[in-house]
Amino acid sequence: AGSQLRVVFDKINNLLSGKSVQSGGRTVSVTQHPQGLDFVYYKLAEKFVDQGEEEIASHHDAAFPIAVVASGIWEIHPRVGDLFLAHLHKKCPYSVPFYPAWKEGTSMEEYQRMLGYQVKDSKMEEEDHFLKRMSGMIRLYAAIIQLRWPYGNKQGTHPHGLNYGWRWLSQMLNLEPLADVTATLLYAFLEVCGNALMKQYQDQFWKMMLLIREDYCPRYD
Prior knowledge:
It is found in: Cytoplasm; Nucleus, Nuclear pore complex. Keywords: Coiled coil, Cytoplasm, mRNA transport, Nuclear pore complex, Nucleus, Protein transport, Translocation, Transport. The protein has helices spanning about 1-15, 35-60, 65-75, 80-90, 110-115, 125-145, 160-175, 180-200, 205-215, and strands at about 20-25, 25-30, 120, 125. By secondary structure, the protein is mainly α. Helix 2 (about 35-60) packs antiparallel against helix 3, helix 6 (about 125-145) runs parallel beside helix 8 and helix 7 packs across helix 8 (about 180-200).
């Protein structure tokens, strides 16, 4: 609900603006430590990505309320956006998009982590769980690039708007498709922001869809 989102947004914005806020029964402020603001920037950006990886992966509709808050905070506090992208790219290299290549001397466990897999006790997570997490983070990214905080002045441009989504899609199609991964992420991305891209890019968008159908998809075979 809008009122709940405003409460969350205002609390985060007040904290980042140096005001005291209530958290866990305590009053906290970034001014209490010289590195307090940097720490909160880092952890907040990490938390947004975690919500994509966990919450949105399981509940797709959560992408939009989380994204609208993240977008609004990003607009007022650009450092959060820079760190969000850093966390996102580290956890989901396909959001760059980038397919890490194996290099000589790299252990298989290290390489699996580079690809975004969770590895515990030398055991790699199951493929379905991996794809679910990756698609959750891509859904969050696809929602952020098209949404703006509705209660702001909106005088400036979106800090990371649809043009970045168009660039991601174009770059993705310039890479050779990876079995399962590419199809899963393209579907998640287009399901969330395909309509917004269509309205923005019109004929170019439909040409891109024809390219995917007639040229890119057959390369999966």
